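Inputs:
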Amino acid sequence: NAGVTQTPKFQVLKTGQSMTLQCAQDMNHEYMSWYRQDPGMGLRLIHYSVGAGITDQGEVPNGYNVSRSTTEDFPLRLLSAAPSQTSVYFCASTRTSGHAGYNEQFFGPGTRLTVL
Amino acid sequence: EDQVTQSPEALRLQEGESSSLNCSYTVSGLRGLFWYRQDPGKGPEFLFTLYSAGEEKEKERLKATLTKKESFLHITAPKPEDSATYLCAVQAANNFNKFYFGSGTKLNVKP
């Protein structure tokens, strides 16, 4: 049981390049999400998915695309990288709780992205 | 607007010196409040979920409490291995697909 895995761990891009951050979970969780973490700003939600084929925007979706073709995978695409997208990106999956719906989130180890 | 504010930004304690971290929130109906621990270079790790005012949860030296406007994470007799950043997050009742995080409190426990 690997939990939530993310690749790559580190990435350097030039302005205008595109790339895909990979995220996979083996816990059969329906809800998955992507966050970015910047110094002093905490975690901000980019996009989320409540199940295969269903995605929606979070707080800071501009410049990012997502898709969810399977329960396990939730890739994040940067269409045309900008220096403002330099950040640490975390993927998370959440099990549902009978008490109050979505509950604790399990986070991946993160991808540290630098855009020059 | 849903908002989470954590204080202090940083806290330095001597080993054994108890203290509390604060998480204040404004949300249109609270569905859940979450505490996470984050070590440098790693993803956040879940600690507690609180659902209603008056609720308390404990785990080793940590105890989380909840009121209608804020939550406290009490650390009793901390050890150096408790050093980490502690994050608070809320889930609103009217939009439970979104989680809002505070910017965290960086705790440093000196031996």
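The two ends of chain A are 36 Å apart (CA to CA). Flag for discussion at group meeting.
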